[in-house]
Amino acid sequence: MRTSLTSLVLLLFTLVDASGTPLPPAATGDVYLSSYGTDEVHCYDRLGSHLFEFTHADLDQPRGLAFSPERELYVASQKNHKVLVFEPNGNYLRQFSDGELQGPTSVAFGPDGKLYVSSFGNDKVIVFAEEVYDGEFTGTGLNGPNCIAFAPTGDIYVASQLSNQVYRFDSSGVPFAPSSFDGGGLWSPMGIALNPSGAGGDPELYVTGGASHSIVVFNLEGEYLRKIQGSSQDPVINGPQGIAFDESGNFSVSSFYEGSMALYSSDGTLLHVFADSGVRTARSIAFFPFRPGEPFLRGDFNEDGNLDLSDAVATLGELFLGVHASYCDDAADSNDDGILDLSDPVYTLTYLFTGGPPPLPPHPEAGSDPTEDDLDCWE
User: Fold this and answer.
1) Between the CA of residue 77 and those of 74, 120, 121, 286, what are the distances in Å?
2) Which of the residues 20, 28, 262, 352 has the least number of beta carbons within 10 Å of its own beta carbon?
């Protein structure tokens, strides 16, 4: 135990550099925001604290954000007509494009698993299957397509900025009749998001009006329901841009003018404003996808597939420095006592360096938790 505690003390010192800054970066964030004016993507936790930001040489005027089913982050790079792909921690993976893609402003994965990209420069929606061009569609009057949302039925909704309308297509890209709708004084629609359970329990569409300083709510047939009105003096609903719902029915919206973002309840009650992190011209928002109860490997808190020193470091960072490393608290609970505390990194270090017992199941293979407690994965 003496060796374990000595190692623990040394690790605590290695967690911070000479200036007191935590060294291990957050593995992922809760909420992601594209900073159009600084060519960055910024990441925050759910309480609004800034975690980190990242960029790439080919990330030029980032707009739309979307997570794939594999939890890779797709970012529309408007100026150079590309889509860049990153890990949730900001590590660059790859990029792709197509000759038909002109000024992409949003990315969205459809129920069919394909990626739909709004091509602002030529008034089209470009479809990619496994990052290869798979078709396109447009509609009469579609002018400046900005953002895309999907209904549970697979119907596609596209916010058309320059015509001040929302266009509705079936799952194959064929326009409905009528093909578009508006209402509530919607002006310059910039973002669109589906609220799966609206005021009456039915799905609703929330559309940000960048020039009307409002969020206008429609049903899936395009009927105007209500709006949340901001103003040019509002700290967030002031040139509102991106909008996205979390798994609890709350939504975040960003402000073009203020470079800010806030979390609201579905009725528009302000919950909190996110920390100022140097964002300039805030654009699109994406929540990291939660999947409760996923299989995990106990002890592997940073989710790299291995149990090693970095997991103990990640747990210490979470406990003492607020460095968010994972959504799977159960994985950090090495001794499976149902509590995430200092005893867990000590248990891991003892196992790794002094021959102590291994973490409790699921270990050494990933699986579900055989014991019931208050910890979970993706909670």
Assistant:
1) 10, 12, 13, 15
2) 20
Take residue 158 and report the two structure tokens written for it.
Answer: 């596209």
| Measured distance CA(144)–CA(63) in Å, rounded | 14
3-state helix, strand, coil in the chain (%, to 5): 15, 35, 50
Which residue, among 131, 130, 122, 173, has the nearest Cα to 148 in the 3D structure?
Answer: 173
Q: Which domains does the chain possess?
A: 2-24+296-354 (1.10.1330), 31-287 (2.120.10.30)
d(CA 101, CA 121): 8
Encode pLDDT of 57-87 as tens digits: 999 999 999 999 888 999 999 999 999 999 9
- Say how far apart CA 30 and CA 44 lie, in whole Å: 6
The answer to whether residues 121 and 86 touch, using CB atoms and an 8 Å cutoff, is no
- pLDDT category of residue 46 using cuts at 50, 70 and 90: confident
- Burial state string for 38-55 with b = 16 or more CB within 10 A and e = fewer than 16: bbbbbbbbbebebbbbbb
Q: For residues 130 and 152, is the Cβ–Cβ distance under 8 A?
A: no
Would you say residue 21 has pLDDT above 70? no
Percent of the chain with pLDDT over 70: 89
Helix 2-14 and helix 309-316, axial crossing angle in degrees, nearest 10? 70
Is residue 197 a contact partner of residue 219, using CB atoms and an 8 Å limit? no
- Give, as one character, the DSSP assignment of residue 130: T
Tokens of 268: 């528009």
289-326 tens-digit pLDDT: 866 667 888 998 887 788 998 888 888 887 887 666 66
Instruction: State the DSSP H helix or E strand holding residue 6, giving kind and residue range, or none if neither.
Output: helix 2-14
The tokens 């790079």 sit on which residue? Answer: 77
